[in-house]
Task: structure prediction
Amino acid sequence: MFGSKPVSPADRRGETRTSVNARGVVCAPGVETACIIVDLSGTGLRLRLDRGATLPSEVVVVNVAEAVAYLATVVWQKGQEAGLKQTGAKSLRGLAPARLIGARDAWLRAGGR
Result:
């Protein structure tokens, strides 16, 4: 029918996404940029970046309020938005693994406590 919207195909994601709109920091060697974690699931994240910079394929996304670092692989990026596949989550409170020291430092600089 004229003027009607086409029916969208079923969502391919296996897990439900939760809208979080949390302040975050994306970290990688030579990269540290602010972001908003728009939504989160057990397997992925969607980010809105502070700048339209291209992300490297492997990053750590820090949820500042929750003190959690998400190890992630960039699946897609369009402008200031990016979709990532989560490959693990670790708390930044207390002792952090050596590979997350940069993320922990970024969390502290962003006001994490």
Remarks:
- The first helix runs from residue 101 to 109.
- The radius of gyration is 16 Å.
